[in-house]
Structures are given as C-alpha cells and as structure tokens.
Amino acid sequence: MRSRGKAEPRPPPRPKQLRGEDLEKKVLEVVLSELDRVGHEKLAIEQVAARAGVNKVTLYRHWPTKLELSRAAVLLVAGETPSQPDTGTLRGDLLEQFRALRAQAREPSRRAVFRLLFDARPGDPIGELVHEIRKEKDAQVMRIYERAIERGELRPDADPRLIHGLLFGAMLGFELLRWGDEEGAPLEAVIDLVLVGVQPPPKSEQRRPARRTHAR
C-alpha cells in the first residue's frame, strides 16, 4: 500500500519564453541599460544576452553586429518622442515636446542616447547614427514652427532651426551637464526667454503710425 504522506511539491513552472516583439523589447531595454552603464564602446553582446536571458546566437540572428543592435535600441527611444504635438499654440507644442524629451533624459535607460550626442567622435559609427536620427526627428519637428509662422506667432524671418537648437541645447545642458539644481531645466522660463526674441511685435505697435517730423 502507498503511504499517504505529503505529496511532493511540484517544480516551479518554467518562465514563459519570450518571442517576437516581447523578446525584442526586452533585449533592447537591456541594451539601453548597458549603454548607460558602460557606453557603446564597451557594450558586450555576451553581457546583453546574459542579462536578457537569451542565447547569444539568437541575438546575432536578429542583429548581426553590435552597431545594428545599438541602432535598434536608439530607434526605440526615438519612436517614443512625439514629433509633431499640436496643442493649438507654439508654446503649448514646445512644452509638450520638451517635457517628453526631459522625461527621457531623466530615465537612466534613455539617458544613454542623449549622452551619445556628446560622446560621439568624428568617424564614430554610433555617434553618426545618433546624429542622423536626430536630424530626421528635427526635420519632423519643423512643422511645429511652420504652423506657428502661419498663425502669426513667429516673425516671418524667424529661423526655426536656430530656435529649436537653442531650446534643445538648453534642455540637455540642464539635464545632463547639471547647469541648474536638482529640478533640472525650467522649461517654461527657457521657452519664454527664447520666444520673446522671435515673436512679432504686439498688434498695437504694428498699427501705430510713424511720427512725422516737421521742419521749422
């Protein structure tokens, strides 16, 4: 007869094997974390595979080179940022755009992409990649400024690329170079400071007739 002792505990269920988009997302999140921790130069496929819990062969099947793996991770971050918010005003659009960028710059796994902009050296493939992606994103963002000119919120001769460059550089300076305190970039103040120099004069001044001088 069988003894009625306690049944042997069942082994824990095997973790669900990730496939497709789930696997890709997990791997790329690990890549971003490693880029923040060690940088692209020291990024190791073996370490990524170990942390993601996948076979190294699987990584090479999807991303044959370290550069392609990093590229996929950078594109993941780029796709998370709204390129053309449309709140109805230029100030509202810029606040939405740069709040999203600031949130990314404060997230360790996303911060690595912004650091690559600073660390890139001439001829560095990953640096050139990041700058190329940024150019593509900036080209999309230009529509924000075009709408503002059409609405009369900017002077017709305003340079959208100069405006965006000033705002983007200020945001990175506050967040990555720690220009300010722990609160980071005061976005509203920075945006207002830049816009005041490129906005058209008030309508009252535009309609004011020129004063005539009378010769005596």
UniProtKB/TrEMBL annotation:
Can you give the residue ranges of the HTH tetR-type domain? 21-81
Q: Which UniProt keywords apply?
A: DNA-binding, Transcription, Transcription regulation
Instruction: State a single Gene Ontology molecular function.
Output: DNA-binding transcription factor activity
Coiled coil spans: none
Cite the InterPro entries for this sequence: Homeodomain-like_sf, HTH-type_TetR-like_transc_reg, HTH_TetR, Tet_transcr_reg_TetR-rel_C_sf, TetR_C
Query: Positions of the region Disordered?
Result: 1-22
Alphabetized Pfam families for the sequence:
TetR_C_11 (PF16859), TetR_N (PF00440)
Q: Where is the composition biased (Basic and acidic residues)?
A: 1-11
> Whereabouts does the entry annotate DNA binding, in residue ranges?
44-63
Q: What is this protein called?
A: HTH tetR-type domain-containing protein
Originating organism:
Cystobacter ferrugineus
